[in-house]
Structures are given as structure tokens and as C-alpha cells.
Structure prediction request, 392 residues.
Amino acid sequence: MFSSTWRRAAALAALVVLVGATAAAVTYGLSAHDAPSAAPAAATTAAASTNGTARPTANTSGPLSIGEIAKASTPGVVEIVTSTTSSGSRQTPGGGGGSTSQAEGTGFVIDTAGHIVTNEHVVQGATSMTVTFDDQSTYRATLVGSDASSDLAVLKVNAPASLLHPLSFGDSNTVQVGDGVVAIGDPFQLTDTVTSGIVSATGREITSPNNTPIENAIQTDAAINHGNSGGPLFNLDGKVVGVNSQIQSDGGGNEGIGFAIPSATVQRVTSELISVGSVKHSLLGIDARTIPASLAGTLGEAAGVAVAQVQSGSGASAAGLKASTGTTTIAGVSYPTGGDVVTSVNGTAVKTSEQLRALIDAHSPGEEVTLTVSRGGETRTVTAKLGTRSAA
Prediction:
């Protein structure tokens, strides 16, 4: 994210997260409650280790069948049921009158220490959580940490080693449109549901529970529904390349457009959650707008990402980035003009504001990035030290 004041300019219609209510299967919303609510618009084989992080599921004979992936991976997928207790009215005799609601989602084991990954919106506001394994044994879970900005959370259970079957991560950066994928989850409390499809698109941007963008989401037509939240999306090597999080739907059901948080983001965030219990996201400190190559000449600007505003005290401000001095409207769309246009980050060409956000978010606060910027036909290079983005 560029600055803490960023808000998405145009939301996709009717994107919903996939948490499911145990009392009413059609319920959906950002929080794990029975009451329905609309959500804002809108995851290599590891060597065996001694620190409890990943057991190998080697595949040396080419792509696996859907059945092979399901058989190998289902033991590592769990059902998560959360309970949320609301306070009773103070006017109720004895202070009672509180109610408890339940919701369910999906998660998966990532190490032999009992850590489980799921979506933040699955556990948001929960007062208690239980995890059910493939053999139907159930254990209470504790929250290690959650991050609303990436919609990810890590739970931990004290379960026997025989139940902990860690899934291995694949590289989401290598995922391509048309690749086969498999989703496993617990939609509508139908445990161990396996669906398959293809990668419909990459590099999508979805919106997290606190309205910040999640970059590089994987779009798939594999059927995912309420209750699939937090479940794994596999490539055909049987490796997790995403965490299923949202669907686009007019009616709240599966319409073949689902989104998964990429594994590159999942690994980075969960590592921080396990080590320190929270995540710090980087901040460049600008609000920006894409200057399409097709319009750059007409606008008199370089193609890239125009700086609309610069946050005072930010790394962008210290680096001398200049905001636009005006706007030009083409076909009803206004574009910032007269300021800096970012054309690359650390040598990587930048074509869209979404791409710039992804490149910045891939770095940690305190790191420096080299920006190539253009203004008035002149190009220069600046170095910006990244700050820390606020959590909301």
C-alpha cells in the first residue's frame, strides 16, 4: 500500500468472503457471525526439517492427478469452527441476555509444531476456536496472530504428531493462466470437499477486511463456496499456491470466479505471525494512478504510475517525489498530471498502480527502494526508505 489513506477507486460488484455460518449455510460476511453482511470487494518441495516446518511430499514423476492430490493432502486440511459471544443488554436483569453465534471455515497444517493457516476473517472476533482433523478428532485452538491487511491468521493446536500432516508451499510467482488447480475445503460443513479448475487470471487485486489491497491474488474457476475460506489452493504438483479467500457473486454462491491469496504473501506473513505475532507492512507514502501506455502521449506523461499525492514525513517525501499539479480528463476519467511518474522499482518496470503496490509490499519497513521517475520529459533515479503502514 502506498499511504494509509488509500482507498480503492472502483470496487468490483458483489465480492464476498467465504466464511460459513453453522446455523445458516447461506450466511456470508467479513465476520464469523450468523447474521449475514456484505463484504467489501475484492495462495518446491520442502526438505524435512528439525524445527517443525514442513514435511516433504516429493513429486518427481510429473503432474499429479486430482485424486492423488486429494489423497495426499486431505489429512493436512482442517475444519475450523469459531464461537463469538455478544454482550447482553445492561438493562437485562443480572446483565444477561448475551448470545453466541458460530461460523466455520477451513485451514491447513503448515508444520509439525501444530501451526495452522486460515483467513483472518474466519477467526475475526472469535471467543473460542476448535479444529477438526480428517479423523474427526477435535482440538481447541489458540490464536498465534492475525493480520487484517492480508486477511491471514495463524492458529496453533496441541495435537498428536500423528495428526499433523504439513502441506508444502509452491511458488505462486510461477503460476500461469491456464494452469490446473485443486481446492480442498469444508463448504457448508461438507468436510474434505475437493474441486478443480484452472487459473483464470493472475495479478488480481482484492480487498482485505480492513479495506487495504491484497495484491497478486490468483483468480480461479475451481468451485469454492462459503466455508472454503482459509483452505488451500494446490497446483498440480500438490503444492499450496494460494489460500482461498473470496468469490465474486451476484447471489452469494459460486459462479466460477474465486480468488486466492498467493503463497508468496502467505509464507511471508505467516512467518512473521509465528515469530512475533504481528505483521508490519511497508509504506512508500504516495497516492497514485496508472498512466496507461495508450494514453501517455495524449496526457504528455510517461507511461507508469503518476504520483497524485505525497504523504508528509514519508519516505516518498524525503526522496523528493512531487505530486501532480493538475488533472486531465479523458473519456470521463481523470488522470493526475504535472508531477512525478514512477516507471520502475529496483529496475523492475512498473505499468500499473497495483503492480507498484505489490512491489512495495514485498519489502519490509526500513528497507530502501530505488525508484526511476519521470517528470516533464526528464528521468531521474531516487532512493526512498520505506515506512510502516498503519493497520487500518
